[in-house]
Amino acid sequence: xxxxxxxxxxxxxxxxxxxxxxxxxxxxxxxxxxxxxxxxxxxxxxxxxxxxxxxxxxxxxxxxxxxxxxxxxxxxxxxxxxxxxxxxxxxxxxxxxxxxxxxxxxxxxxxxxxxxxxxxxxxxxxxxxxxxxxxxxxxxxxxxxxxxxxxxxxxxxxxxxxxxxxxxxxxxxxxxxxxxxxxxxxxxxxxxxxxxxxxxxxxxxxxxxxxxxxxxxxxxxxxxxxxxxxxxxxxxxxxxxxxxxxxxxxxxxxxxxxxxxxxxxxxxxxxxxxxxxxxxxxxxxxxxxxxxxxxxxxxxxxxxxxxxxxxxxxxxxxxxxxxxxxxxxxxxxxxxxxxxxxxxxxxxxxxxxxxxxxxxxxxxxxxxxxxxxxxxxxxxxxxxxxxxxxxxxxxxxxxxxxxxxxxxxxxxxxxxxxxxxxxxxxxxxxxxxxxxxxxxxxxxxxxxxxxxxxxxxxxxxxxxxxxxxxxxxxxxxxxxxxxxxxxxxxxxxxxxxxxxxxxxxxxxxxxxxxxxxxxxxxxxxxxxxxxxxxxxxxxxxxxxxxxxxxxxxxxxxxxxxxxxxxxxxxxxxxxxxxxxxxxxxxxxxxxxxxx
Length: 595
Fold this sequence. Notes:
By secondary structure, the chain is α+β, with helices and mostly antiparallel strands. The protein has helices at 40-53, 74-86, 88-92, 98-112, 117-124, 133-136, 145-155, 159-170, 249-259, 276-283, 297-305, 338-367, 376-390, 411-418, 437-445, 448-460, 472-495, 506-511, 524-532, 544-551, 577-588; strands at residues 2-8, 11-23, 26-34, 65-72, 175-180, 195-197, 220-227, 233-240, 265-268, 289-294, 319-322, 331-336, 396-400, 405-409, 423-429, 555-561, 569-572. Among the domains are: 2-73 and 557-576, no CATH class; 340-418; 502-541, no CATH class. Helix content is 41%, strand content 18%. Helix 2 packs across helix 17 and helix 4 (98-112) crosses helix 7.
């Protein structure tokens, strides 16, 4: 570092504190602080300190300066630069205001250090802050969690306008719309919905229901996402915790067609969402509304019993399109997954054997000579516990009396179920004749993109649960903030995929599959990253979370010279080559606001 006077025409010279550094083999200069207002004596003292620090025979200069504070900054800069490119501030409100700044900080903090609003307020407080986020968002010095709650109250009425703006970016006439809400066990292919448990008992939305969090006895809420074909979240809606999947469909159709103004769209939902009843009551005959879903296992078994599904359909490939009078005007694509078939056969035999082993113990207890198990009710109670544990009641004949118990497998039922192992049927009503059978399967499997969103929201990154808010509007706003945070994260991942373990060559990965039914395999590029932990140019590969931690090592330091009355300045850590590449990728990647 050195002090350099710069001529300023007819005014006194400008006194600058500067440093010299080397970048890409070139020597460059950078201004650290303007010392023009410093008293001349202090400037001269600092000049002597800097001069002595460059003298190898002089004592070290570490005692000549103090670092009074050091705050992580790089990860904040990366997230906020992405938010600015996406126009998040304008989405929240057209004019700058304290509430908008606080909402920007809450969205960014959900990515950087997800926590409750109380913990967030402490992470942004001047005394306990964890990063430069409060400075970068221009937050007031004297705010607390109540100001965050007030900002949420300000944001909540703006959700319809925000979602409409996002829909105008990512939806257009004829768009494919992915919608998912809750998990149906065993549905094919696997997709994931989301429930989140609730801390407290006073929120009108919180209800007891089937908990996918494993939190028995906890109240919960249910919410679903509307995403575009790439998995970019566009809208989110919160429902009461005991709401069934199909009951949410009508509100989403109304939102898409009336609020977003889409006259023609293709809605993709799983078989637990778009049921036969919903098709008959809400979808069939609606002009411009196409849909893609799948049949339930009972419907597939009926098609197999009618002879419409034959093994010969899969002689050449693992999918075939059929027609059935039970589904007039619809396209049915039968898919066979051999790996899934073997897995289901193996799992069923394991459950059957485990059930038989437990039932054999009960039969032995009934037949033993000493203290035998007696009583139809007592025997039935023990048998019921076994059957409930393994869920195999449909595959066994059970004969229970006061002093006897026998059982046997229902071989016909087992054979009927085995006949459809590994089969699933994509069901669609699409007016576009250019949709091939393979494309219908691909579009249905795109629901896995919503699964990725739910995984990030729920566990991996954003940690939407547990929910502590009491009012209905604040619960809805909390989920909205989490969705907007995932919207930012999605674009960051897209820009940084070459330095993340994420797939970065989707075209090659898709081309390597034998057909649409085959599981997705990583591309050679993704395999190489996973094996070497390095990018082609030799830089380290990160997960999204470790990448943020790496960026957080870029700190903003407040430095003060040990001179009476000398003011300090702020200086940021020099980025590493990997960090420079990360910022370059974020800067060069086209974001949605400009698409």
